[in-house]
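Table 4 source record.
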Amino acid sequence: MTTRFEIELEKLKEIITKIGALAETQVGEAVKAILSEPIEGKEVKKTEQKIDKLDVKIDEICQTIFALQQPVASDLRFIMSAMQISNEIERVGDLSMSIIKKTKSIKDKHDLIAKFEISGLAREVELIITKTNTCFLTKEENSINEIFVSNRAIKNKTDVAVHAIINEMKSNPKVVVSGTNLVLALKHLERISEHCTNIAESIFFMINAKIIKHEKFDELEEEE
């Protein structure tokens, strides 16, 4: 017979899966906005509201479990991680909305995006959020490492692109406004990637009962 505790844990897992999928959709819309592809403005707003509601719901479920149950260590790790993951996902949703709003002020996007190969970078951020959501479901440690590696690549490419755009603004004052907004959008993409690694860290804790920062993950693998 399934206990109420087991039902609540399963519900928690389902909601995290759902909120992760919604955030993935928002990141996809943000990438479309950067690349001047059509987006559904009303749907984006609805998705943002759904993410906020689910974030609150996750907190409520976790509080209920803590108040009424005495979870064992593995379940306790899952609940603690769920709260942290929900936080990170909510921030991904917020950053996606900021990107969508910011890109409205970017004129002549096509030239800047093509010149500095922004499209590939944006697609990599789409991939890392997808990989992160899959990792939550599969709990595969190889995927955790892949997320960390992807994040480092995204950070490096963002640094290169931002530096190039700043140099472009110095030599061509006409693109200062567009360049500035594009830089801000790229930094938001970088932060989305960073939030994905934070989620991966929570998944690692859930599996191994160890706290590890992605900067130190390679050292941990070497020890093993």
